[in-house]
Amino acid sequence: MSGRVKIEGLRELEQALMALGKVAAKNVARRTLMKAAQPIADDAAQRAPEETGSLIKSVAASTRNPKRNKKESPVEVHVGPGRSPRAHLQEFGSRRHGPQPFLRPAWEGGKDDALASIAGDLADEIDKAAKRQSRKAARLARKAAG
Questions:
Q1: pLDDT, tens digit, for every residue of 14-65?
Q2: Sequence-distant (≥ 6) Cβ neighbours of residue 118 within 8 angstroms
């Protein structure tokens, strides 16, 4: 299961993000996306069937790509059971048992909150990163002068 979301209309935030530099921008985006994805992962883990408990433990939000395919954007966050070999059978069912969806309902219930979180938290994270960079630049300037 894959869901893609594209946010448009945030040009000012994007420009501020790019002004931080490539590494800082990636870190800001990663923190913001992980914060928005964690409630969805928590909800999916609560909804997961409790047969052995391994599926519940494996559900997480991560920047690692569980399929190990090529990333399409500089920062991606994945929510799901990682490389659990039977998770898709729980989600979609099989010939032997019916579906027990846990990821789709978590996504449907949390996607709007996640988007709102991203929009709100991105500006705050950019501001914090810019302040960190200015403090670091001032500290380096004092060190070079003294």
A1: 778 788 888 888 888 899 999 999 999 999 999 988 876 788 888 999 887 7
A2: 7, 32, 33, 36
Rounded Cα gap, residues 120 and 109, in angstroms: 19
Beta bridge partners of 40: none
What is the dihedral sign for C-alpha 26, 121, 78, 38?
A: positive
- Phi then psi for residue 10, to 5 deg, are -115, 45
Q: Indicate the pLDDT class of residue 6, thresholds 50, 70 and 90.
A: low
**pTM of the predicted model over 0.85:** no
Residues whose CB is less than 8 angstroms from the CB of residue 5 and which lie 6 or more positions away in sequence, other chains included = 111, 115
Structure confidence at residue 2 (pLDDT)? 55
Neighbours of 115 (CB within 10 A): 13
Which of 100, 109, 98 shows the shortest CA–CA distance to 81?
A: 100
Tell which residue, 133, 122, 117, has the closest CA to residue 30: 122
Instruction: Give the Cα separation of 87 and 146 in Å (integer).
Output: 59
Phi, psi of 32 (to 5 degrees): -65, -45
